[in-house]
Protein backbone atom coordinates (compact mmCIF):
# COMPACT_ATOMS: atom_id res chain seq x y z
CA UNK A 1 0.00 0.00 0.00
CA UNK A 2 1.55 3.29 -1.11
CA UNK A 3 -0.57 5.75 0.87
CA UNK A 4 -3.18 6.19 3.60
CA UNK A 5 -6.15 4.76 1.71
CA UNK A 6 -8.34 3.91 4.71
CA UNK A 7 -8.35 7.41 6.26
CA UNK A 8 -9.68 8.77 2.97
CA UNK A 9 -12.35 6.06 3.01
CA UNK A 10 -13.23 7.07 6.58
CA UNK A 11 -13.53 10.68 5.46
CA UNK A 12 -15.74 9.56 2.57
CA UNK A 13 -18.02 7.66 4.93
CA UNK A 14 -18.41 10.73 7.16
CA UNK A 15 -19.14 13.02 4.20
CA UNK A 16 -21.68 10.55 2.79
CA UNK A 17 -23.38 10.28 6.17
CA UNK A 18 -23.54 14.06 6.52
CA UNK A 19 -24.99 14.54 3.05
CA UNK A 20 -27.55 11.80 3.63
CA UNK A 21 -28.72 13.49 6.84
CA UNK A 22 -29.01 16.85 5.10
CA UNK A 23 -30.84 15.48 2.05
CA UNK A 24 -33.24 13.52 4.26
CA UNK A 25 -33.76 16.65 6.38
CA UNK A 26 -32.66 14.86 9.55
CA UNK A 27 -29.59 16.96 10.24
CA UNK A 28 -29.57 18.36 13.78
CA UNK A 29 -26.37 20.16 14.85
CA UNK A 30 -27.12 19.36 18.49
CA UNK A 31 -27.25 15.62 17.92
CA UNK A 32 -24.24 14.11 19.72
CA UNK A 33 -23.14 12.16 16.66
CA UNK A 34 -21.73 15.32 15.04
CA UNK A 35 -19.29 16.22 17.80
CA UNK A 36 -18.35 12.54 17.92
CA UNK A 37 -17.54 12.75 14.22
CA UNK A 38 -15.61 16.02 14.68
CA UNK A 39 -13.27 14.24 17.09
CA UNK A 40 -13.10 11.23 14.78
CA UNK A 41 -12.10 13.40 11.82
CA UNK A 42 -9.36 15.09 13.78
CA UNK A 43 -7.72 11.85 14.91
CA UNK A 44 -8.52 9.13 12.40
CA UNK A 45 -8.62 11.24 9.25
CA UNK A 46 -6.46 14.37 9.63
CA UNK A 47 -3.85 12.95 12.00
CA UNK A 48 -3.88 9.59 10.22
CA UNK A 49 -3.12 11.24 6.88
CA UNK A 50 -0.55 13.74 8.15
CA UNK A 51 1.33 11.27 10.34
CA UNK A 52 1.14 8.34 7.95
CA UNK A 53 4.78 8.39 6.87
CA UNK A 54 5.97 8.76 10.45
CA UNK A 55 3.71 5.89 11.53
CA UNK A 56 5.04 3.60 8.82
CA UNK A 57 8.64 4.42 9.73
CA UNK A 58 8.06 3.68 13.42
CA UNK A 59 5.37 0.97 13.46
CA UNK A 60 5.54 -0.54 10.00
CA UNK A 61 3.23 -0.37 7.01
CA UNK A 62 1.22 -3.45 7.97
CA UNK A 63 0.34 -2.20 11.44
CA UNK A 64 -0.55 1.30 10.22
CA UNK A 65 -2.85 -0.18 7.57
CA UNK A 66 -4.44 -2.44 10.22
CA UNK A 67 -5.01 0.54 12.51
CA UNK A 68 -6.55 2.65 9.74
CA UNK A 69 -8.79 -0.24 8.72
CA UNK A 70 -9.86 -0.58 12.36
CA UNK A 71 -10.82 3.10 12.39
CA UNK A 72 -12.94 2.65 9.24
CA UNK A 73 -14.93 -0.39 10.30
CA UNK A 74 -15.27 0.88 13.88
CA UNK A 75 -16.94 4.05 12.59
CA UNK A 76 -19.28 2.05 10.35
CA UNK A 77 -20.18 -0.14 13.33
CA UNK A 78 -20.80 2.90 15.56
CA UNK A 79 -23.12 4.52 13.01
CA UNK A 80 -24.98 1.25 12.46
CA UNK A 81 -25.64 0.76 16.17
CA UNK A 82 -26.49 4.45 16.63
CA UNK A 83 -29.29 4.18 14.05
CA UNK A 84 -30.48 0.62 14.60
CA UNK A 85 -30.55 0.52 18.41
CA UNK A 86 -34.01 0.91 19.99
CA UNK A 87 -33.29 4.32 21.48
CA UNK A 88 -36.78 5.73 21.07
CA UNK A 89 -38.64 2.77 22.64
CA UNK A 90 -36.12 2.68 25.48
CA UNK A 91 -36.89 6.31 26.32
CA UNK A 92 -40.45 5.27 27.09
CA UNK A 93 -39.39 3.32 30.16
CA UNK A 94 -37.34 6.21 31.59
CA UNK A 95 -38.92 8.65 34.07
CA UNK A 96 -40.24 11.85 32.56
CA UNK A 97 -38.44 15.07 33.57
CA UNK A 98 -39.89 17.76 35.83
CA UNK A 99 -41.70 20.36 33.76
CA UNK A 100 -41.17 23.22 36.22
CA UNK A 101 -38.15 25.52 36.28
CA UNK A 102 -37.94 27.54 39.47
CA UNK A 103 -36.47 30.97 38.93
CA UNK A 104 -36.48 31.55 42.67
CA UNK A 105 -34.16 28.61 43.28
CA UNK A 106 -31.89 29.70 40.41
CA UNK A 107 -31.72 33.23 41.83
CA UNK A 108 -30.47 31.78 45.11
CA UNK A 109 -28.18 29.15 43.57
CA UNK A 110 -26.49 30.99 40.69
CA UNK A 111 -24.54 33.69 42.63
CA UNK A 112 -22.63 31.28 44.94
CA UNK A 113 -21.86 29.03 41.96
CA UNK A 114 -20.42 31.99 40.03
CA UNK A 115 -18.38 33.08 43.04
CA UNK A 116 -17.09 29.55 43.53
CA UNK A 117 -16.13 29.30 39.86
CA UNK A 118 -14.34 32.65 39.97
CA UNK A 119 -12.47 31.58 43.09
CA UNK A 120 -11.30 28.38 41.36
CA UNK A 121 -10.21 30.37 38.33
CA UNK A 122 -8.29 32.76 40.56
CA UNK A 123 -6.42 29.92 42.26
CA UNK A 124 -5.44 28.47 38.88
CA UNK A 125 -4.36 31.91 37.68
CA UNK A 126 -2.09 32.44 40.68
CA UNK A 127 -0.55 28.98 40.33
CA UNK A 128 -0.56 28.29 36.55
CA UNK A 129 2.57 26.17 36.35
CA UNK A 130 3.10 24.85 39.88
CA UNK A 131 0.00 23.21 41.34
CA UNK A 132 2.25 21.68 43.99
CA UNK A 133 2.29 25.07 45.74
CA UNK A 134 -1.41 24.64 46.55
CA UNK A 135 -2.59 23.03 49.74
CA UNK A 136 -4.60 19.81 49.42
CA UNK A 137 -7.79 21.71 50.16
CA UNK A 138 -7.05 24.44 47.60
CA UNK A 139 -6.08 21.83 45.01
CA UNK A 140 -9.44 20.13 45.53
CA UNK A 141 -11.35 23.40 45.22
CA UNK A 142 -9.68 24.26 41.89
CA UNK A 143 -11.44 21.28 40.32
CA UNK A 144 -14.82 23.04 40.38
CA UNK A 145 -14.53 26.00 37.98
CA UNK A 146 -17.24 24.63 35.71
CA UNK A 147 -19.98 25.36 38.27
CA UNK A 148 -19.78 28.95 37.00
CA UNK A 149 -20.71 27.78 33.51
CA UNK A 150 -23.53 25.65 34.91
CA UNK A 151 -24.94 28.77 36.58
CA UNK A 152 -24.76 30.65 33.29
CA UNK A 153 -26.74 27.96 31.45
CA UNK A 154 -29.32 27.85 34.27
CA UNK A 155 -29.91 31.57 33.84
CA UNK A 156 -30.12 31.40 30.05
CA UNK A 157 -32.75 28.66 30.29
CA UNK A 158 -34.66 30.65 32.92
CA UNK A 159 -34.60 33.79 30.81
CA UNK A 160 -35.56 32.26 27.47
CA UNK A 161 -38.81 30.43 28.21
CA UNK A 162 -41.29 31.45 25.53
CA UNK A 163 -44.26 31.86 27.87
CA UNK A 164 -42.48 34.04 30.47
CA UNK A 165 -39.27 35.56 29.14
CA UNK A 166 -37.02 37.36 31.62
CA UNK A 167 -34.37 39.51 29.95
CA UNK A 168 -32.30 40.09 33.14
CA UNK A 169 -31.87 36.33 33.59
CA UNK A 170 -30.89 35.92 29.94
CA UNK A 171 -28.38 38.78 29.96
CA UNK A 172 -26.84 37.56 33.21
CA UNK A 173 -26.50 34.04 31.79
CA UNK A 174 -24.91 35.22 28.56
CA UNK A 175 -22.55 37.52 30.46
CA UNK A 176 -21.44 34.69 32.74
CA UNK A 177 -20.89 32.35 29.78
CA UNK A 178 -18.83 34.90 27.84
CA UNK A 179 -16.84 35.77 30.97
CA UNK A 180 -16.15 32.07 31.57
CA UNK A 181 -14.80 31.64 28.04
CA UNK A 182 -12.57 34.72 28.38
CA UNK A 183 -11.28 33.76 31.83
CA UNK A 184 -10.27 30.30 30.74
CA UNK A 185 -8.65 31.52 27.57
CA UNK A 186 -6.59 33.75 29.85
CA UNK A 187 -5.85 30.72 32.05
CA UNK A 188 -4.73 28.81 28.94
CA UNK A 189 -7.34 26.04 29.14
CA UNK A 190 -8.73 25.16 25.72
CA UNK A 191 -11.44 22.68 26.77
CA UNK A 192 -13.14 25.09 29.17
CA UNK A 193 -13.22 27.85 26.57
CA UNK A 194 -14.60 25.57 23.86
CA UNK A 195 -17.26 24.13 26.17
CA UNK A 196 -18.45 27.65 26.94
CA UNK A 197 -19.01 28.33 23.24
CA UNK A 198 -20.81 25.05 22.57
CA UNK A 199 -22.98 25.05 25.70
CA UNK A 200 -24.06 28.67 25.22
CA UNK A 201 -25.00 28.12 21.58
CA UNK A 202 -27.01 25.03 22.46
CA UNK A 203 -28.85 26.68 25.37
CA UNK A 204 -29.67 29.73 23.24
CA UNK A 205 -31.28 27.74 20.45
CA UNK A 206 -32.92 24.95 22.45
CA UNK A 207 -34.77 27.44 24.60
CA UNK A 208 -35.92 29.30 21.49
CA UNK A 209 -36.97 25.93 20.01
CA UNK A 210 -34.98 26.59 16.86
CA UNK A 211 -31.80 25.44 15.17
CA UNK A 212 -28.95 27.69 13.97
CA UNK A 213 -28.52 28.60 10.34
CA UNK A 214 -25.59 27.30 8.31
CA UNK A 215 -23.93 30.70 8.61
CA UNK A 216 -24.16 30.52 12.41
CA UNK A 217 -22.82 26.96 12.43
CA UNK A 218 -19.83 27.93 10.29
CA UNK A 219 -19.18 30.99 12.43
CA UNK A 220 -19.38 28.88 15.58
CA UNK A 221 -16.89 26.39 14.17
CA UNK A 222 -14.48 29.25 13.48
CA UNK A 223 -15.02 30.83 16.91
CA UNK A 224 -14.52 27.44 18.61
CA UNK A 225 -11.24 26.88 16.79
CA UNK A 226 -10.21 30.45 17.54
CA UNK A 227 -10.76 30.29 21.31
CA UNK A 228 -8.89 26.97 21.46
CA UNK A 229 -5.98 28.44 19.51
CA UNK A 230 -5.85 31.57 21.63
CA UNK A 231 -5.90 29.55 24.85
CA UNK A 232 -3.12 27.25 23.66
CA UNK A 233 -1.09 30.08 22.19
CA UNK A 234 -1.33 32.19 25.35
CA UNK A 235 -0.40 29.18 27.50
CA UNK A 236 2.84 28.73 25.57
CA UNK A 237 3.57 32.42 24.92
CA UNK A 238 6.70 33.85 26.51
CA UNK A 239 6.93 37.18 24.71
CA UNK A 240 4.16 39.00 26.59
CA UNK A 241 3.81 39.78 30.31
CA UNK A 242 1.35 37.54 32.15
CA UNK A 243 -1.13 40.33 32.73
CA UNK A 244 -4.44 41.53 31.34
CA UNK A 245 -2.65 44.09 29.16
CA UNK A 246 -0.26 41.41 27.95
CA UNK A 247 -3.18 39.13 27.06
CA UNK A 248 -4.95 41.88 25.12
CA UNK A 249 -1.72 42.59 23.26
CA UNK A 250 -1.33 38.88 22.48
CA UNK A 251 -4.88 38.63 21.15
CA UNK A 252 -4.52 41.70 18.93
CA UNK A 253 -1.30 40.26 17.48
CA UNK A 254 -2.63 36.73 17.17
CA UNK A 255 -2.00 35.05 13.82
CA UNK A 256 -5.24 33.34 12.75
CA UNK A 257 -3.18 30.90 10.67
CA UNK A 258 -2.16 29.24 13.95
CA UNK A 259 -5.61 27.66 14.01
CA UNK A 260 -4.27 25.22 11.43
CA UNK A 261 -1.71 23.99 13.95
CA UNK A 262 -4.38 23.16 16.50
CA UNK A 263 -6.40 21.34 13.85
CA UNK A 264 -3.31 19.21 13.13
CA UNK A 265 -3.10 20.73 9.67
CA UNK A 266 0.32 22.27 10.32
CA UNK A 267 3.22 21.56 12.67
CA UNK A 268 3.85 23.89 15.58
CA UNK A 269 7.53 22.99 15.48
CA UNK A 270 9.30 21.66 12.43
CA UNK A 271 11.86 19.94 14.66
CA UNK A 272 9.28 17.44 15.94
CA UNK A 273 10.60 13.90 15.54
CA UNK A 274 7.77 11.86 17.06
CA UNK A 275 3.99 12.12 17.00
CA UNK A 276 3.28 9.44 19.56
CA UNK A 277 2.04 12.13 21.96
CA UNK A 278 -0.83 12.85 19.55
CA UNK A 279 -3.96 10.70 19.85
CA UNK A 280 -3.29 8.85 16.60
CA UNK A 281 0.27 8.16 17.68
CA UNK A 282 -1.03 6.75 20.96
CA UNK A 283 -3.49 4.59 19.03
CA UNK A 284 -0.67 3.13 16.92
CA UNK A 285 1.35 2.46 20.06
CA UNK A 286 -1.54 0.54 21.62
CA UNK A 287 -2.08 -1.43 18.42
CA UNK A 288 1.63 -2.29 18.39
CA UNK A 289 2.02 -3.29 22.04
CA UNK A 290 -1.32 -4.74 23.18
CA UNK A 291 -1.57 -7.67 23.71
CA UNK A 292 1.73 -8.92 22.22
CA UNK A 293 4.01 -6.85 24.48
CA UNK A 294 1.64 -5.73 27.21
CA UNK A 295 -1.71 -7.02 28.43
CA UNK A 296 -5.29 -5.82 28.10
CA UNK A 297 -6.90 -3.87 30.92
CA UNK A 298 -10.31 -5.46 30.14
CA UNK A 299 -12.12 -2.20 30.82
CA UNK A 300 -10.70 -1.78 34.30
CA UNK A 301 -10.39 1.97 33.80
CA UNK A 302 -14.17 2.32 33.72
CA UNK A 303 -14.29 1.44 37.41
CA UNK A 304 -13.06 4.99 37.98
CA UNK A 305 -16.61 6.16 37.25
CA UNK A 306 -17.33 4.90 40.79
CA UNK A 307 -13.95 4.86 42.54
CA UNK A 308 -13.17 8.49 41.72
CA UNK A 309 -15.98 9.65 43.96
CA UNK A 310 -14.92 7.63 47.02
CA UNK A 311 -12.67 9.89 49.13
CA UNK A 312 -9.27 8.56 50.14
CA UNK A 313 -10.19 9.43 53.72
CA UNK A 314 -12.59 6.50 53.44
CA UNK A 315 -10.44 4.37 51.12
CA UNK A 316 -6.76 5.31 51.66
CA UNK A 317 -5.40 2.53 49.46
CA UNK A 318 -7.72 3.27 46.52
CA UNK A 319 -5.99 2.19 43.27
CA UNK A 320 -5.97 4.16 40.05
CA UNK A 321 -7.85 1.59 38.03
CA UNK A 322 -6.45 0.86 34.58
CA UNK A 323 -3.37 3.05 34.93
CA UNK A 324 -0.94 0.13 35.36
CA UNK A 325 -1.92 -1.43 32.03
CA UNK A 326 -1.81 1.97 30.33
CA UNK A 327 1.71 2.70 31.61
CA UNK A 328 2.89 -0.83 30.81
CA UNK A 329 1.82 -0.41 27.19
CA UNK A 330 3.66 2.91 26.91
CA UNK A 331 6.80 1.46 28.44
CA UNK A 332 6.65 -1.51 26.08
CA UNK A 333 6.33 0.49 22.87
CA UNK A 334 7.27 4.13 23.32
CA UNK A 335 10.08 5.73 21.38
CA UNK A 336 11.08 7.44 24.63
CA UNK A 337 11.83 6.10 28.07
CA UNK A 338 8.71 6.08 30.25
CA UNK A 339 8.97 5.85 34.04
CA UNK A 340 6.46 4.22 36.37
CA UNK A 341 5.06 7.63 37.35
CA UNK A 342 4.53 8.59 33.70
CA UNK A 343 1.41 10.70 33.11
CA UNK A 344 1.09 11.74 29.55
CA UNK A 345 -0.94 12.09 26.38
CA UNK A 346 -4.38 10.78 25.55
CA UNK A 347 -4.62 7.71 23.35
CA UNK A 348 -8.02 8.44 21.87
CA UNK A 349 -11.13 6.30 21.72
CA UNK A 350 -9.71 3.48 19.60
CA UNK A 351 -6.47 3.40 21.57
CA UNK A 352 -8.58 2.91 24.68
CA UNK A 353 -10.72 0.17 23.16
CA UNK A 354 -7.61 -1.64 21.91
CA UNK A 355 -6.31 -1.55 25.48
CA UNK A 356 -9.69 -2.78 26.70
CA UNK A 357 -9.73 -5.90 24.58
CA UNK A 358 -8.59 -5.42 20.99
CA UNK A 359 -11.13 -5.78 18.21
CA UNK A 360 -13.69 -7.39 20.52
CA UNK A 361 -13.24 -4.59 23.02
CA UNK A 362 -13.75 -2.07 20.22
CA UNK A 363 -17.00 -3.71 19.13
CA UNK A 364 -18.40 -3.87 22.67
CA UNK A 365 -17.38 -0.37 23.82
CA UNK A 366 -18.48 1.39 20.62
CA UNK A 367 -21.84 -0.37 20.76
CA UNK A 368 -22.33 0.88 24.32
CA UNK A 369 -21.25 4.41 23.38
CA UNK A 370 -23.55 4.48 20.35
CA UNK A 371 -26.54 3.21 22.31
CA UNK A 372 -25.90 5.59 25.22
CA UNK A 373 -25.62 8.64 22.98
CA UNK A 374 -28.69 7.68 20.96
CA UNK A 375 -30.74 7.06 24.11
CA UNK A 376 -29.75 10.45 25.55
CA UNK A 377 -30.54 12.19 22.26
CA UNK A 378 -33.95 10.55 21.93
CA UNK A 379 -34.75 11.61 25.49
CA UNK A 380 -33.83 15.20 24.63
CA UNK A 381 -35.99 15.16 21.50
CA UNK A 382 -38.99 13.70 23.32
CA UNK A 383 -38.90 16.37 26.03
CA UNK A 384 -37.24 19.21 24.11
CA UNK A 385 -39.79 21.74 25.37
CA UNK A 386 -38.94 21.04 29.04
CA UNK A 387 -36.54 23.56 30.68
CA UNK A 388 -34.72 20.94 32.74
CA UNK A 389 -33.96 18.96 29.57
CA UNK A 390 -32.76 22.09 27.78
CA UNK A 391 -30.44 22.82 30.71
CA UNK A 392 -29.15 19.23 30.89
CA UNK A 393 -28.57 18.82 27.17
CA UNK A 394 -26.70 22.12 26.76
CA UNK A 395 -24.11 21.02 29.35
CA UNK A 396 -23.97 17.38 28.28
CA UNK A 397 -24.02 16.92 24.51
CA UNK A 398 -20.47 18.22 23.89
CA UNK A 399 -19.12 15.22 25.84
CA UNK A 400 -19.53 13.20 22.65
CA UNK A 401 -16.34 14.95 21.50
CA UNK A 402 -14.50 14.08 24.73
CA UNK A 403 -15.45 10.44 24.23
CA UNK A 404 -13.27 10.35 21.12
CA UNK A 405 -10.23 12.44 22.03
CA UNK A 406 -9.45 11.40 25.63
CA UNK A 407 -8.01 8.36 27.42
CA UNK A 408 -11.30 6.46 27.38
CA UNK A 409 -14.93 7.24 26.45
CA UNK A 410 -15.94 7.85 30.09
CA UNK A 411 -13.09 10.12 31.11
CA UNK A 412 -15.36 13.16 30.77
CA UNK A 413 -17.48 11.91 33.66
CA UNK A 414 -14.88 11.14 36.27
CA UNK A 415 -12.52 13.93 35.20
CA UNK A 416 -14.94 16.85 35.43
CA UNK A 417 -18.64 16.36 34.72
CA UNK A 418 -19.41 13.80 37.41
CA UNK A 419 -18.54 16.04 40.33
CA UNK A 420 -19.07 19.57 38.96
CA UNK A 421 -22.20 19.18 36.85
CA UNK A 422 -23.96 15.89 37.59
CA UNK A 423 -24.83 16.80 41.22
CA UNK A 424 -26.36 20.10 40.06
CA UNK A 425 -28.31 18.38 37.29
CA UNK A 426 -29.73 15.93 39.85
CA UNK A 427 -30.43 18.74 42.33
CA UNK A 428 -32.37 20.71 39.74
CA UNK A 429 -34.34 17.59 38.86
CA UNK A 430 -35.57 17.13 42.43
CA UNK A 431 -36.01 20.83 43.17
CA UNK A 432 -38.25 21.27 40.14
CA UNK A 433 -40.01 17.98 40.71
CA UNK A 434 -41.35 19.43 43.94
CA UNK A 435 -41.55 23.07 42.83
CA UNK A 436 -44.86 24.84 43.33
CA UNK A 437 -46.78 26.51 40.52
CA UNK A 438 -45.82 30.00 41.70
CA UNK A 439 -44.95 33.01 39.60
CA UNK A 440 -41.29 32.06 39.81
CA UNK A 441 -41.88 28.71 38.16
CA UNK A 442 -41.83 28.41 34.38
CA UNK A 443 -42.01 25.63 31.83
CA UNK A 444 -45.52 24.20 32.05
CA UNK A 445 -45.99 23.42 28.37
CA UNK A 446 -48.04 20.35 27.59
CA UNK A 447 -46.01 17.12 27.55
CA UNK A 448 -44.85 16.12 24.11
CA UNK A 449 -45.73 19.47 22.56
CA UNK A 450 -44.82 19.44 18.85
CA UNK A 451 -41.61 21.21 17.98
CA UNK A 452 -41.56 21.74 14.22
CA UNK A 453 -38.39 23.84 14.44
CA UNK A 454 -36.47 20.88 15.86
CA UNK A 455 -36.42 18.98 12.61
CA UNK A 456 -32.84 19.79 11.75
CA UNK A 457 -32.30 20.52 8.08
CA UNK A 458 -35.98 21.17 7.51
CA UNK A 459 -35.82 24.06 9.97
CA UNK A 460 -32.66 25.36 8.32
CA UNK A 461 -34.26 25.14 4.88
CA UNK A 462 -37.26 27.14 6.07
CA UNK A 463 -35.02 29.82 7.53
CA UNK A 464 -35.92 29.25 11.20
CA UNK A 465 -32.29 29.37 12.21
CA UNK A 466 -31.80 32.84 10.77
CA UNK A 467 -34.45 34.24 13.10
CA UNK A 468 -32.52 33.16 16.15
CA UNK A 469 -29.02 33.97 14.91
Q: What would your notes on this structure say?
A:
The chain is an all-alpha fold. It has a domain at 101-263 and 409-467. 64% of the residues lie in helices and 1% in strands. The protein has helices at 5-23, 32-50, 52-59, 61-84, 87-91, 103-126, 136-141, 147-159, 167-186, 190-208, 214-236, 244-252, 259-262, 279-289, 304-307, 323-333, 348-382, 387-394, 399-405, 411-420, 422-433, 457-462, 464-467; strands spanning 101-102, 441-442. The protein has a two-stranded antiparallel ribbon. The longest helix is centred in the last third of the chain and has 35 residues, at 348-382. The termini are far apart. Residues 444-469 have low confidence and may be disordered.
Topology:
Blueprint: H1 5-23, H2 32-50, H3 52-59, H4 61-84, H5 87-91, E1 101-102, H6 103-126, H7 136-141, H8 147-159, H9 167-186, H10 190-208, H11 214-236, H12 244-252, H13 259-262, H14 279-289, H15 304-307, H16 323-333, H17 348-382, H18 387-394, H19 399-405, H20 411-420, H21 422-433, E2 441-442, H22 457-462, H23 464-467
Helix pairs in contact: 1-2, 1-4, 2-4, 2-19, 3-4, 4-17, 6-8, 8-9, 8-10, 8-18, 9-10, 9-11, 10-11, 10-18, 14-16, 14-17, 17-19
In short:
The protein is 64% helix and 1% strand. With 469 residues, the chain is an all-alpha fold.
Number of helices: 23
Considering DSSP H and I runs of 4 or more, what fraction of the residues is helical? 55-70%
Could you tell me how far the N terminus lies from the C terminus, measured between alpha carbons in angstroms? 47 Å
Proportion of residues in β-strands: under 5%
Strand order, main sheet: write it out.
1-2
Order of helices and strands: HHHHHEHHHHHHHHHHHHHHHHEHH
Low-confidence stretches: 444-469
Biggest sheet, open or closed, and with what strands and sense?
Answer: 2 strands, antiparallel
Number of strands: 2
Mean pLDDT: 86
